[in-house]
Amino acid sequence: MGTRWARALLAVLAMVSLVTGCAPQAPTGGDIITETVTLYYGDQGNEKMLTETRSVSYPRGADRYQVVLQELVKGPRSEGLRANISPETRVYGTILQEDGDLLVDVSQEFARFPGSIAEIIGVGSVVNTLTQFPEVRRVKILVEGEELIGPSGQPRGFMEPLPNPGEGTVSRDITLYFGNRDATAVVAETRTVSIPADIQLPDLLRIAVEQLIKGPRNQDLSPTIPPGTRVLSVSVEEDVAHVDFSQEMHTQHWGGAAGESMTVQSIVNTLTEFPDIRRVLMTVEGQPLAIDHMVLDQPVGRSEDLAAK
């Protein structure tokens, strides 16, 4: 779904909200859904996010995410919590796309944060509240149909669940492998990432692969995984890491024997940097990786011959 089309639809939702009000209409047959949700707010010092559980009810077929956000905007009921979103904020509507990306359109009052910390926690409260639902992978916030702009002056784009500022995270250096200019070898690049202190190995491997997808920071190196590729799952059995990718790994790949080799070896060498992993099984939506010249239906081990010295 294109962003322009989504904005147009959300604009229609906004007009409907202005006419009918923000509260969902009561159904005639009493067909009401009630569920307990987790809402994220700041603590009194606005140093971290805390949670509050709340029961919400809405008619079957209503915009579930809009209802939950409207509850969030109302502010916390518990002592020790602080709202960073203006209570005047109106939630126009949401659109959930097939890939798990959720578009949210709110009124201009949302962007009136009293400071940078309040903005971090306010934005985080929206993203983390909505990504508690398994079907929501990322959230993009639109303000009156336009992308929310961050402190850098750039659109914030789609956001994954945000770590709690200063709580439960540690910094760790990971080694990523990207292609050299001639596509004859993979070259190591060290990157520092912030991860949960109690992270499990499959989640750590997922982070490493997602960093690979983002591409290198060194301009002399080349990306090895097509942009837009998603990591569908990561699991570990004995010393084998199994990584399942979305179809973009096949449909958006640039092809060629050299490009194929760089893709495979960059993934394998990156993941075998972790002591417990010796081989990697790569699949695309459950089927063997088959980019161009080979079909990989067996785990692949590390190749030092293709790693630049």
Could you explain how this protein is built, in words?
By secondary structure, the chain is an alpha+beta fold. The chain folds into two domains: 3-147, no CATH class; 169-301, no CATH class. The protein is built from six helices and 14 strands. The protein has helices at residues 3-20, 64-73, 116-130, 201-214, 248-251, 257-271, and strands at residues 32-43, 49-59, 81-82, 91-96, 101-106, 138-143, 146-147, 169-179, 186-196, 231-237, 240-245, 279-284, 287-288, 300-301. Strands 10, 11, 12, 13 and 14 form a five-stranded mixed β-sheet that branches. The chain has a four-stranded mixed β-sheet with strand order 4-5-6-7. The chain is elongated and about 60 Å long. The relative contact order is 0.10.
Oligomeric state of shown chains: single chain
Report the average pLDDT across residues: 86
Low-confidence stretches: 13-29
What pattern of helices and strands is seen along the backbone?
HEEHEEEHEEEEHEEHHEEE
